[in-house]
């Protein structure tokens, strides 16, 4: 089963920040995917990015853990 916005929100909680929007026609390429909305999750310090979730319109493109050095690792999310 594919993940939708509601399932990701329920699993990860509300993002700290967001870039773009579901209806933003501009796309950006990052981590090998073209997206128009990025959910940003910050750590306890409120500054450090620890996770990003990328979307293109309503399609889930992936969740990525962000290491202290800025490298990213794809993260598997449950599809319940």
Describe this structure as you would to a colleague:
The longest helix is centred in the first third of the chain and has 8 residues, at 5-12. The N and C termini lie close together (7 Å). With 80 residues, this protein is mainly beta. It has one domain. Helix content is 10%, strand content 45%. It has a five-stranded antiparallel sheet, with no helix packed on it. The radius of gyration is 12 Å and the shape is globular. It contains one helix and seven strands, in the order H-E-E-E-E-E-E-E.
Number of self-contained structural domains:
1
Helix and strand element order:
HEEEEEEE
Low-confidence stretches: none
- The count of β-strands is 7
Strand content: over 45%
Question: How does the major sheet shape up?
Answer: 5 strands, antiparallel
Sequence of strands across the biggest β-sheet: 1-4-5-6-7
Short description, anyone?
By secondary structure, this protein is mainly beta. 10% of the residues lie in helices and 45% in strands.
Helix and strand arrangement:
Blueprint: H1 5-12, E1 17-20, E2 28-30, E3 33-35, E4 37-42, E5 49-56, E6 59-66, E7 72-75
Antiparallel strand pairs: 1-4, 2-3, 4-5, 5-6, 6-7
């Amino acid at each position: 089963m594919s993940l939708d916005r509601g399932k990701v929100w329920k699993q990860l909680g509300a993002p700290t920040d967001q870039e773009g929007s579901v209806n933003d026609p501009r796309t950006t390429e990052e981590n090998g995917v073209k997206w128009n909305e990025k959910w940003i999750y910050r750590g306890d310090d409120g500054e450090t990015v620890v996770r990003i979730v990328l979307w293109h319109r309503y399609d889930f493109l992936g969740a990525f853990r962000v290491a202290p050095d800025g490298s990213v690792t794809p993260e598997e999310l449950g599809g319940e």
